[in-house]
Amino acid sequence: MIKLIPKDLSILSANIKKNMFTKRYKFTVAKIVDDKEIVQEHKYAFGLHNFSNVNLYTSRTHTCNQLRTEDSGKSVILCGWVEYVRLNRFIVLRDGYGSTQLIIPENASAELNDFVGKIPLESVLMCHGSVKLRPADEINKNQATGMIEVLVDKLQLLNAVDTKLPFQLRKFNKANESLRLKYRYVDLRYPEMQYNLRLRSKLLMKMREFLINHREFVEVETPTLFKKTHGGAQEFIVPTHEKGKCYSLVQSPQQLKQMLMVGSIDRYFQVAKCYRDEGAKSDRQPEFTQLDIEMSFTDQNGVMLLIEELLSFIWPSELGKINTPFHRMSYEEAMLTYGSDKPDIGRSKKISNWTKYLPSASNEVFALVLKNSENKLSKKQKNDLETLISTNYPGVKFSLLNIKSIKTFKENLLKMFNGIDAAAVVDAHNISEHDFVAIARGSKYKALSALGKINEHFKADNSCDDRWRFVWIVDFPLFEIDSNHNIQSVHHPFTQPQTEITPNNLLEVKGFHYDLVLNGNEVGGGSIRIHDANLQTKVIDSILNIPIETISHLVEALKSGCPPHGGIALGVDRLLSILCNTNSIRDVIAFPKTFEGKDLLTGAPTEITTEDKKRYHLKFDNTQKT
To answer: How far is residue 199's CA from residue 295's CA, in Å, rounded to a whole number?
Structure first.
């Protein structure tokens, strides 16, 4: 007789938990840690079999993705969410691991059949039953458990959905992202989200395993409440009850890990939460996670080798192998070749310098020739690209040309560039009808960057046999001119210069900085640090004009016997996003913010109370700007 227990579950659950907690307490006291003994105890207590670690300390015997043909005839307990109900007889039960079909016996009571038909989707059930093989014509080859089904003996309604869910979990009809983020606790049930978060957990565990067990690193947690750092990204300010005094949320543990090197923690790492108030950016989060690493007595090659070995160790076997050592490319070569300091070396096309075809030129001329790409850019896409380039590179003159006739193309070239050897251009670059040509002239790196944006747009059309395209970008400039014509650090002011800095070579000197790029995305960046207090003071105070007192704690540390050191940070969110092939890093974060920095789940940021304003001495200007 099939039993239906929708009401008395709390008593059953309490009894189960009591048994579980008693055994766990006993194990703790007796210090029994052997898995086999624990499994035997659970088999004895519940009359169950085939336990695995994933089911220890739970009410179930198997997950909804575990049962196979060899389990036929076994008595099992499954727990999960109701994914489908069909004909009041078939239930697909889903958990975080997969799904299994349950079948109500033909001799079941009318009451049970009626109940099954009324179970709201996504309600939580516990099923007691036995495993049976499906008939040959009912096997589902698209389901891991598709060879079997569970014949229901007893159903327990653990929790019925008593609200209208905002969306159903269907692959073919996904809700928009805003709705998914608002109801993230439902969205997390998607198999893709389960896979992404479980892969994230495994990779973080493997990172720790490699660094601690295989390379003798020490995991050290550093504060997130810190002192505001001048330069770099905008930081979040945290008011305190001391009037006029604020903390800042760290944009990275940079200074703290350098001081750990001074303190003889010579091999440091942590999985660090970092914060940057960078406004609306589609591929950024105001809070993000990075694997932060620092070593003493190392050099650039040492850090890069460590990361190559680390990634080889953690790389999921189902995603294929990565080839090491990674290709290396200077910043200059990357910009001249691809127009980007994060090139996708397998799919981006190479840029050509056309200046040599001109009798004279005040600015260099660069071009990108894309074969058979005449019709791959819609009018809207072309307008969007033109707007993007005009907005970001206002001094660059550029042309986007669809080659319908070689004769017309040559005529257009002569109109744009007086005296250009158009025939030599066509011959040297094998330009033919139906090609697409982008031409840019102006300030060297801005013109190249403009073509890099176009390259990025077209790279999806270019195939590549190498699935994982890693490249190290090295030899970055140490300084650059900002929009206000001031000197600023290209990365941060703690990078060791490759040569002596003089007033005459500020824009020529290169730093020991290195970025790791994967498939055209920056997934890591680091540098060898300045460990000499006098040099650090010169960079901060004399060159960047940052008040030295804002960083006096680090300068004092460098004076106290600081070893040569360097490190790197890997962007965990972005790396996972590439591995999981997601459209956004938000799909590999459990509870992300929108690209505008809003938390749709809770409505944060929200207004604070009058009491909080008084405690933190805050007064807001509520006047409306016109």
So the answer is: 27
User: pLDDT digit string (tens) for 321-347?
Assistant: 999 999 999 999 999 999 999 999 988
C-alpha distances in Å from residue 511, one per residue of 58, 135, 174, 535, 555: 55, 68, 47, 13, 19
**Which pLDDT band holds residue 50 (cuts at 50, 70, 90)?**
very low
Domain 198-319+472-625 has CATH 3.40.1400.10: no
Question: According to CATH, what is the number of the domain 37-159?
Answer: 2.40.50.140
Tokens of 609: 């109370």
The 10s digit of each residue's pLDDT in 232-280 is: 678 999 999 999 999 999 999 999 999 999 999 999 999 999 999 987 6
Higher pLDDT, 553 or 28: 553
Output the pLDDT for position 623. 58
pLDDT-based confidence at residue 466 (cuts at 50, 70, 90): confident
Tokens of 559: 């004076």
- Phi-psi region for residue 37, left (φ > 0), alpha (ψ -120 to 50) or beta? alpha
Angle between helix axes 444-458 and 379-392 (nearest 10 degrees) is 150
Q: Which strands sit side by side in the sheet containing 397-402, from one edge to the other?
A: 352-353, 365-370, 436-441, 397-402
- Bridge partners of 529? 495
**With contact defined as beta carbons under 8 Å apart, do 550 and 230 qualify?**
yes
* pLDDT tens-place string over residues 357-407: 999 878 899 999 999 888 788 888 888 888 989 998 988 999 999 999 999
User: 3-state secondary structure string, 165-223?
Assistant: CCCCCCHHHCCCHHHHHHCHHHHCCCHHHHHHHHHHHHHHHHHHHHHHHHCCCEECCCC
213 vs 13, higher pLDDT: 213
Q: Do β-strands 99-103 and 148-159 pair in parallel, antiparallel, or remain unpaired?
A: parallel
- What span, in angstroms and rounded, lies between the C-alpha atoms of 610 and 616? 10
- pLDDT value at residue 10: 32
For 170-209, write each residue's pLDDT tens digit. 876 789 999 999 999 999 999 999 999 999 999 999 999 9
Say which amino acid occupies 379: K
Q: How far is CA 293 from CA 269, 329, 459, in A?
A: 4, 22, 32
**Looking at residues 520-532, what average pLDDT do you find?**
97
**Domain range summary for the chain, segments of one domain joined by +:** 37-159, 198-319+472-625, 349-458
Q: How far is CA 11 from the centre of its chain?
A: 43
Best CA proximity match to 46, nearest among 34, 58, 37: 58
Residues contacting 254, CB < 8 A, separation 6+: 229, 492, 494
Q: Which residue has the tokens 């896979």?
A: 195
Q: Does domain 349-458 have CATH number 3.30.465.10?
A: no
The structure tokens listed for 380 are 């809207």
CB of 152 closer than 8 Å to CB of 129:
yes
Query: In whole angstroms, what is the distance from residue 188 CA to residue 169 CA?
Result: 10
